[in-house]
Amino acid sequence: MTKHPEQPGRPEVPGRSGRPLTVLSVVGARPQFVKLAPVAAAFAATGHRHLIVHTGQHYDTRMSEVFFTDLAIPTPDVHLGVGSGTHGAQTGAMLTALDSVLAERRPDWVLVYGDTNSTLAGTLSAVKQHLRVAHLEAGLRSFNRRMPEEHNRVLTDHAADLLLAPTDAAMAHLSGEGLAGRSVLVGDVMTDVCFGVRDAVAGTPLPAELDEALGGEPGGYLVATVHRADNTDDPARLAAVVDALAGLDEPVALLAHPRLVARCAEFGIDLARPGLHALPPLAYPDMVRAVLGSRGVVTDSGGLQKEAFLLGVPCTTLRTETEWTETLAGGWNVLDPNLTQLKELAARPAPTAERGTPYGDGHAARRTVEALEAG
Ligand code: UD1
Fold first, then answer.
1. Each residue's pLDDT tens digit, 309-360
2. Whose alpha carbon is nearest atom 26 of ligand 1?
3. Under DSSP, is residue 98 helix (H, G, I), strand (E, B) or coil?
4. The overall pTM is greater than 0.90
5. Where are the domains of the chain?
6. What is 22-188+360-374's CATH number, 3.30.540.10, 3.40.50.720, 3.40.50.2000, 3.40.190.10?
7. Rounded Cα gap, residues 301 and 252, in angstroms
8. Three-class DSSP category at 220
9. Is 84 in the pocket of ligand 1 (CB under 6 A)?
């Protein structure tokens, strides 16, 4: 448990209360570390105190530590080491552990991110202790009640005090649920980090493990990820997804989430096929570089759909719906839940349609800090 050193020489920027704020971020899963990076950097430029609590939902080095290192995120102040479990057991263990941490620190704001079990646990622990909760990436909806993420985001939005929305569509969802009075449009913090990293990796060589897997051949390849329970937890569905990826015309770099690897082993599904290269998850800058160099992305990840869009790479999504509906405009992202058109969709060229800037201007983290100051 490391404490941040005080930041000498930093100007004191008071919140509305007239004093610097203490804000405590709760994170635990890979996409939250990406969102945390620009927020931590924005806080570091103020006199506010920013504490980080890592629940330990993701614990493999490649799912957690590399993000802190590569994205220069300060070491968490507290690590709960909760690990895996059923949804109830995992969320419950986080809730128990967070109760005493929040009771001890009593921050002005608890900041939760996205839609994971860590988000819900942070929210519940905070509201029950009458601590104010701000939800970053509020208002996203898939309207698919089978998804654990949908339960987490709906419950979090309705419990939180301040809803920091990434898009106009998210603001409209919140308004439709009677939450407009607590909602602020700040933009998408993933745009902040994605554009910064894109500019840093442009022109660099492909990540060595990817280059090696592809045999050093220049030319087309696809980036694929699969980890949603609806795709991984039914043996027939998972076999169909892996077969479909192996049947694509171009080599596929399958960046394999631990859940995918575990389920394939359990169901006896072989990932080693000609043209299908299963690789461990990539660090964030390597992922951005891999997508930039690819012909297309095939995924069920929310974040990767949007990163493909931001980077101008066509995406095919193996789900019945997407929360990031703006990516569908102009055919940049196409849903193919039944895998019936995957071969053609994965081979399509990049659309020519303008993408616009539905995910903001890359300054969402700064606006997040301002919203907390004003709240
Ligand atoms: C979680 C989030 C999901 C997010 C995803 C990003 C929930 C409900 N879901 O899903 O919204 O898109 O993270 O990756 O919170 N495992 C490891 N090592 C790790 C982490 C996980 O081996 O570092 C394995 C464990 O066997 C675990 C399984 O992966 O049971 C699933 O992990 P879990 O955190 O439960 O959910 P994710 O599928 O990662």
1. 999 999 999 999 999 999 999 999 999 999 999 999 999 999 999 999 999 9
2. 259
3. helix
4. yes
5. 22-188+360-374, 197-346
6. 3.40.50.2000
7. 16
8. coil
9. yes
